[in-house]
Amino acid sequence: MNLTAMHCQAQHGKSPLDATRQQQHLSALPGWEIQGIELVKTFRFGNYYETMAFVNALAWIAHQEDHHPDLSVHYNRAVVHFSTHDANGLTLNDFICAAKTEALLNRPA
Ligand SMILES: C[C@H](O)[C@H](O)[C@H]1CNC2=NC(N)=NC(=O)C2=N1
One short Pfam family name for this protein (predicted)? Predict the structure, then answer.
Protein backbone atom coordinates (compact mmCIF):
# COMPACT_ATOMS: atom_id res chain seq x y z
CA MET A 1 0.00 0.00 0.00
CA ASN A 2 1.54 3.34 -1.04
CA LEU A 3 0.62 5.45 1.97
CA THR A 4 2.32 8.59 0.67
CA ALA A 5 -0.16 8.75 -2.24
CA MET A 6 -3.19 8.47 0.07
CA HIS A 7 -5.08 11.15 1.96
CA CYS A 8 -6.59 11.23 5.42
CA GLN A 9 -10.31 10.75 5.80
CA ALA A 10 -12.64 11.81 8.62
CA GLN A 11 -12.65 9.17 11.36
CA HIS A 12 -15.36 10.47 13.70
CA GLY A 13 -17.07 7.45 15.29
CA LYS A 14 -14.73 4.99 13.55
CA SER A 15 -12.78 2.23 15.31
CA PRO A 16 -8.99 2.05 15.46
CA LEU A 17 -7.14 -0.45 13.25
CA ASP A 18 -6.62 -3.87 14.81
CA ALA A 19 -3.14 -4.80 16.06
CA THR A 20 -2.31 -6.95 13.03
CA ARG A 21 -2.99 -4.14 10.58
CA GLN A 22 -1.10 -1.68 12.76
CA GLN A 23 1.96 -3.97 12.65
CA GLN A 24 1.66 -4.36 8.87
CA HIS A 25 1.75 -0.61 8.33
CA LEU A 26 4.46 -0.14 10.97
CA SER A 27 6.79 -2.50 9.10
CA ALA A 28 7.02 0.04 6.25
CA LEU A 29 7.97 2.89 8.61
CA PRO A 30 11.58 2.60 9.87
CA GLY A 31 12.20 4.13 13.28
CA TRP A 32 8.52 4.55 14.16
CA GLU A 33 7.16 2.80 17.26
CA ILE A 34 3.69 2.16 18.57
CA GLN A 35 3.44 3.45 22.14
CA GLY A 36 -0.03 2.72 23.48
CA ILE A 37 -2.44 4.51 21.12
CA GLU A 38 0.29 6.62 19.53
CA LEU A 39 2.68 6.23 16.59
CA VAL A 40 5.93 7.89 17.63
CA LYS A 41 9.33 8.77 16.17
CA THR A 42 12.19 11.03 17.25
CA PHE A 43 13.78 13.00 14.39
CA ARG A 44 17.29 14.35 15.08
CA PHE A 45 18.83 17.42 13.46
CA GLY A 46 22.06 19.40 13.58
CA ASN A 47 20.62 22.54 15.12
CA TYR A 48 17.49 24.46 16.06
CA TYR A 49 16.99 25.97 12.61
CA GLU A 50 16.90 22.55 10.92
CA THR A 51 14.58 21.22 13.61
CA MET A 52 12.20 24.14 13.11
CA ALA A 53 12.29 23.79 9.31
CA PHE A 54 11.18 20.17 9.73
CA VAL A 55 8.45 21.15 12.20
CA ASN A 56 7.13 23.78 9.78
CA ALA A 57 7.11 21.33 6.87
CA LEU A 58 5.26 18.86 9.08
CA ALA A 59 2.75 21.56 10.01
CA TRP A 60 2.00 22.00 6.31
CA ILE A 61 1.30 18.27 5.92
CA ALA A 62 -0.93 18.38 9.00
CA HIS A 63 -2.83 21.31 7.54
CA GLN A 64 -3.26 19.68 4.13
CA GLU A 65 -4.40 16.39 5.66
CA ASP A 66 -6.40 17.91 8.55
CA HIS A 67 -4.58 15.48 10.85
CA HIS A 68 -2.40 16.96 13.54
CA PRO A 69 0.47 15.38 15.47
CA ASP A 70 1.44 16.18 19.03
CA LEU A 71 4.99 17.49 18.95
CA SER A 72 7.77 18.04 21.42
CA VAL A 73 10.36 20.35 19.93
CA HIS A 74 13.90 20.62 21.26
CA TYR A 75 17.16 22.25 20.11
CA ASN A 76 18.24 19.37 17.85
CA ARG A 77 15.31 16.97 17.76
CA ALA A 78 11.54 16.79 17.40
CA VAL A 79 9.41 13.97 18.77
CA VAL A 80 6.33 13.33 16.63
CA HIS A 81 3.25 11.58 18.05
CA PHE A 82 0.40 10.65 15.74
CA SER A 83 -2.91 9.35 17.07
CA THR A 84 -6.49 9.74 15.90
CA HIS A 85 -8.46 11.50 18.62
CA ASP A 86 -11.73 10.88 16.79
CA ALA A 87 -11.19 7.09 16.98
CA ASN A 88 -9.27 7.09 20.28
CA GLY A 89 -6.50 5.02 18.70
CA LEU A 90 -4.46 4.45 15.58
CA THR A 91 -6.16 4.64 12.19
CA LEU A 92 -4.86 4.64 8.65
CA ASN A 93 -4.62 8.44 8.95
CA ASP A 94 -1.74 8.11 11.41
CA PHE A 95 0.22 5.79 9.12
CA ILE A 96 -0.47 8.00 6.08
CA CYS A 97 0.87 11.07 7.89
CA ALA A 98 3.88 9.14 9.24
CA ALA A 99 4.71 8.03 5.67
CA LYS A 100 4.36 11.60 4.39
CA THR A 101 6.62 12.78 7.23
CA GLU A 102 9.25 10.22 6.21
CA ALA A 103 9.00 11.36 2.60
CA LEU A 104 9.95 14.90 3.69
CA LEU A 105 13.39 13.65 4.66
CA ASN A 106 14.06 11.05 1.99
CA ARG A 107 16.27 12.71 -0.56
CA PRO A 108 16.81 11.02 -3.93
CA ALA A 109 20.15 9.18 -4.16
C1 LIG B 1 -12.98 18.02 12.21
C2 LIG B 1 -11.53 17.69 12.05
O3 LIG B 1 -11.26 17.21 10.78
C4 LIG B 1 -11.10 16.66 13.07
O5 LIG B 1 -11.29 17.18 14.37
C6 LIG B 1 -9.66 16.22 12.89
C7 LIG B 1 -8.64 17.32 13.04
N8 LIG B 1 -7.32 16.81 13.32
C9 LIG B 1 -7.14 15.65 13.95
N10 LIG B 1 -5.93 15.26 14.32
C11 LIG B 1 -5.72 14.13 14.96
N12 LIG B 1 -4.49 13.78 15.31
N13 LIG B 1 -6.76 13.32 15.26
C14 LIG B 1 -8.01 13.60 14.91
O15 LIG B 1 -8.93 12.82 15.20
C16 LIG B 1 -8.25 14.80 14.22
N17 LIG B 1 -9.44 15.15 13.80
Answer: Pterin_4a
